[in-house]
Design brief:
Structural class of chain B: mainly beta
Largest sheet of chain A: 6 strands, mixed
Number of strands of chain B: 11
Radius of gyration of chain B: 14 Å
Number of helices of chain B: 0
Shape of chain B: globular
Number of helices of chain A: 0
Shape of chain A: globular
Structural class of chain A: mainly beta
Order of helices and strands of chain A: EEEEEEEEEEEE
Helix content of chain A: under 10%
Oligomer: heterodimer
Strand content of chain A: over 45%
Radius of gyration of chain A: 14 Å
Distance between the termini of chain B: 38 Å
Largest interface: A-B, 19 and 19 residues
Helix content of chain B: under 10%
């Protein structure tokens, strides 16, 4: 069965600095998708970034980028020039054809210090 | 563009009372629809999903049920609420068959407190 692991329950970063959130997953599939979602205090889940496993190029969305290491089954999120509005819970998620469902990690709570 | 609505935003209900939460999607046809529950400080638990009108798949056996009376409407119900039903309920949609079904977009959620 597919699993997603986020080993950092909490992280902290200074405003304008860079932070990296870790995510590892386990799967026997070769074709799948990976996501990072942000959940601010309002608790609405917001899609941050999407990565297709068959693409070697790392996805980027403005200040957000990923480091996708398929062989290592690692999918980390880098936030550059951190802003106060980046403070939120971040969830890593996996989607594969075997289950056709999103499998979420347990989340990393990011605090941004002014 | 597509939007997803949930109501009510907040609900406080006594134990044993019924429940009805509604989710509607605009701007797309034949979406896949999902209900999740998130307990405080925890991850998301998939409760139900639907690939079409009247088609409901249940992930977790419990006293909740779901229905899809219209293409873009998804309802979560209970006949008698339990204390353990308290939590944050999120509805999500993804593109239906023929499109990229992998990406899910979430609504604003409903905070349910059962007393």
């Amino acid at each position: 069965a597919q699993t997603v692991t986020q080993s950092q329950p909490e992280m902290s970063v200074q405003e304008a600095e860079t932070v990296t959130l870790s995510c590892t997953y386990d799967t026997s599939e070769s074709d799948y998708y990976l996501f990072w979602y942000k959940q601010p205090p309002s608790r609405q889940m917001i899609l941050v970034i999407r990565q297709e496993a068959y693409k070697q190029q790392n996805a980027t969305e403005n200040r957000f980028s990923v480091n996708f290491q398929k062989a290592a089954k690692s999918f980390s999120l880098k936030i550059s020039d951190s802003q106060l509005g980046d403070a939120a819970m971040y969830f890593c998620a996996y989607y594969g054809g075997a289950t056709n469902k999103l499998i979420f990690g347990t989340g990393t709570l990011l605090a941004v210090q002014p | 563009s597509q939007t997803i609505h949930q109501w009510p935003a907040t609900l406080v209900q006594p134990v044993g009372s019924p429940l009805s939460l509604e989710c509607t999607v605009e701007g797309t046809s034949n979406p896949n629809l999902y209900w999740y529950r998130q307990a405080a400080g925890r991850g998301l638990q998939l409760l139900f999903y639907s690939v079409g009108i009247g088609q409901i798949s249940s992930e977790v056996p419990q006293n909740l049920s779901a229905s899809r009376p219209q293409d873009r409407q998804f309802i979560l119900s209970s006949k008698k609420l339990l204390l353990s039903d308290s939590g944050f309920y999120l509805c999500a949609w993804s593109v239906g068959a023929g499109g990229h079904t992998d990406t899910q977009y979430f609504g604003p959620g409903t905070r349910l407190t059962v007393l």
